[in-house]
Specification:
The chain has about 55 residues and is mainly α. Helix content is about 95%, strand content about 0%. The protein contains one helix and no strands. It is rod-shaped. The mean pLDDT is about 95.
Length: about 55
C-alpha cells in the first residue's frame, strides 16, 4: 500500500493542512476583534481629547 516515506509525507501534509486551517480560523476570528477594539480605543481617546480642549477654551 504505502511505503514508510509516503506515509511520513502524508502525515506531514495532513499536519501542514491542519495548521493552516487553524491559523485561518484564528486570523478570521481574532484579528477583526483586535482591530475593532483598537479603533474603538483611538476613537475614545480622541473624543476625550476634544472634551479636554473644549473645557480649556
Amino acid at each position: 500500500m504505502f511505503t514508510f516515506e509516503q506515509y511520513l509525507g502524508f502525515l506531514a501534509f495532513l499536519m501542514i493542512l491542519t495548521l493552516g486551517f487553524w491559523l485561518m480560523i484564528f486570523l478570521v476570528s481574532i484579528l477583526p476583534y483586535w482591530i475593532g477594539g483598537s479603533l474603538y480605543e483611538k476613537w475614545k481617546m480622541s473624543r476625550e481629547e476634544k472634551k479636554k480642549n473644549e473645557l480649556k477654551s
